[in-house]
What we know:
The structure holds two protein chains of two kinds. Chain A is α/β, with parallel strands linked by helices. Chain A has helices spanning about 15-25, 35-40, 40-50, 60-70, 85-90, 120-130, 150-155; strands at about 1-10, 30-35, 55-60, 75-80, 100-105, 110-115, 115-120, 135-140, 150. Chain B has a single domain (about 5-130), classed as 3-Layer(aba) Sandwich (Rossmann fold), CATH 3.40.50. In chain B, α4 (about 95-100) packs antiparallel against α5. The chains are: A alpha/beta, B alpha/beta.
Amino acid sequence: MSVVLVRVDQRLLHGQVVVGWAPSLDADHVMIADDALARDAFGSEVMTSAAPPELDVEVAPLSEAARRFETLEGRTMLLVRSPAALLELVRLGAQVREANVGGLHWKEGARRFLDYLFVTREDVSALTELAKLGVRLIACDLPGNPKTDLVAALADGRLAFDHLPSRHP
Amino acid sequence: MNPPYPTLLVTHRGYGEGLLAAAEAILGARPAIDHMSNEGLSPDALLGAIEAWLDTHASPAIVLTDLVFGSCAQSSRIATRNRPDTVVVSGVSLPMILALLRSREHGDLREMLRHLRQRTQESVCVFVGSEPLEGNPS
């Protein structure tokens, strides 16, 4: 089959992904594309070992994920940690046409766009580049919840970093 | 009531607070268990908060979390990377908390943990109408 979801989520594989997205997409495979985690045997073990048996989970560097993107078997959810990671994945050759942006929590320097989307200037810059490359960017935390077209939000200025509120959640 | 070891509850949203409030309603006193929620926290922020708590409490310490595949359990397990005496237990429930508070007499740490897991598993009983489903703990 193929990649049924590309998702940007700071938490990578977690409750919303396992309980929310996987059943709704009938996914049976998760590829976590993350260079740091791929180098971290303990962190990878923590992330993969607790997954339910119906989900086959693997961790791969971004370069490997990009190389295998078109040939992945099963119904795969591909997870990356940040917009910058997604941009690198695309630049490495992954033919990503649409991505779900689902969880960027507050961190120093981040500003609120949605309750589950706090972006830094670097995040907005990466999202802007992705939009220029033709990637549809849809913000949505859980299946069935409202979707926000981030490409449109970038185009009309709603996602302009300098216009976003900077309050801590 | 005090658990046998310093204990931290790390859960989604207000689940942990609700568990402690329920335990207090049953016991008449709030358990001496600290609680933190992952709400709004990045993985690094949650990890930092757990590590800060572990740094200020005696070892061994116990971290109770909810979903085994959730961000709370993952951050808790990552926090044990250089803390071999720290225990992470997933699947926290009211029966588990009550069992932990009554587990002082169960010897060393590992024996106590085996007892805690068994007691929690035994708390799951299913009844269909008036009939117990086969496989219920006896």
